Amino acid sequence: MEKEFATMPITPAVDLDGLLLLLPHELMGLAIIVGMLAIAIGRNHFVSTVIATSGMLAAGIAGAMQFYELTLGAAPSMVTALFVLDALSALFIALLAFSAMGVAIMSFAYFHKLADARDEFQLLLSLATLGAITLVSSAHFITVVIGLEMLSMALYGMIAYPIHSGAWAAKSLESAIKYLVLSAVASATMLFGMALIYAATGSLGFLDISVSTGSLFYLGLLMLFVGVAFKLSLVPFHLWTPDVYQGGPLPAVAFLATLGKVAVAVFAIRLFSQPQIGQLPVVTSVIALVAAASILVGNLLALRQTNLKRLLAYSSIAHMGYLLVAVLSISAATAISEVEDSAFALESALFYLLVYSLLSLGAFGCALLVSSSEDEAAGVGDYRGLFWRSPWLASVLLVMVLGLAGIPLTAGFIAKFQVFFAAVGDSQWGLLAAMVLGSAIGLFYYLRIVYQMLMPVLDTDESFALREIGIENLGVLAVLAVLTVAVLWVGVYPEPLFALIAFAASNF
């Protein structure tokens, strides 16, 4: 991988060129400004949604065009020392922007019947998206802090968004306060770790960090990893996850579970795949321990859950553990100068991250389609008999659940197989055993959801009353259709996505 890095020149960009390279960020910033002005002039939920989705669509197209230019031979570029435009950042800027547009469309249907205070959610969603795309294009710890804080501050408001009354309102507020306090501690820990790394190396840029054997450097890396582990809800920093997932509004939770984690994960991959950091024994040991614990604990605790949001919360912990296995394989292969194995491990990590975001977004989208701000289908039992009440919705949820379980002919199987293969190539036998055991456990609770959908419909309150699909839900249907086709297409014919991921992995 060091050879590949060396062959990719980084071109400094300033002035107008730099502004053009940051076009996705500028478009999202413009959408935020226009959204604020629109709310100040007059409240209209539809207008606010159109402004937010237009900004996300424009940012996604800009990111996709930048990726296309790089495939034609354009060199990766730096915007000062803070931002980097390479294939990795361009690809995930496009992914995050388009995914955020899907969440914005879903949130319109979710908040449709809310009497007031609907417009601000789209504004917070746009701000969170700007933070996420800033994070994936960061080449400097200062930019990481800016992106992370924009993302986190927006999520605080999204999770605490006032949509319920009574006990529901208290639960939502409790979730937001818990996330605020713990996230602030994690952010402070990361900031302190960055300060220690700067004290030990004299640099805050990823590519400029030199290896130091001092205790300050190791302590800084450890503190930085602790903050990342919290943001990704890795064991033992996962305790906030189920409560926040359960108490927050579905659109906010969908964003947190997908885009929020993807952005942090891309930053972690970019940092810990650097040879001077990822090969350190203390780093690999900590990553291996946390990965195994996350896989086993996440899957075991998911077995006990009867709430769908809490089940998906613990499931996400396990999936982030699988991702860490691929990240560790990058370091292991680089340490023994296996360039091809290192590149494959990096591709596996990026592929798994992309597929996970699609599957999770689809699963939350299915739950959102039968829910609203007034009433949520939260329990697994609420989906009893869904195959007989709404076969098409049950089929979509089936695809997403089987994909998360890693069943063949879905994108989830290909992604998990890639990680397995990367771990085998680098002889990560202990982690392989944890993955096999975790996958077997996960299969059980995922199939429990399928079992509930196949059960006969009861004329009691045990099954959720499926509401009529109104015109406000047409956008959600379109998003779910796109996600379903994408998951099945990648599961059957993954080569085009492999090619994109391979180029992104070789161009950063």
Q: Keywords, please?
A:
508 residues, mainly alpha, 21 helices, globular, 3-stranded mixed β-sheet
Describe this structure in words.
- By secondary structure, this protein is mostly helical.
- The protein has one domain.
- Helix content is 74%, strand content 2%.
- The chain has 21 helices and 3 strands.
- The protein has a 3-stranded mixed beta sheet.
- Strand 2 and strand 3 form a beta hairpin.
- Helix 10 crosses helix 14, helix 14 packs parallel to helix 18 and helix 15 runs antiparallel to helix 18.
- The chain is globular, with a radius of gyration of 22 Å.
- The N terminus is likely disordered.
Question: What's this model, at a glance?
Answer:
The protein is mainly α and 508 residues long. Helices cover 74% and strands 2% of the residues.
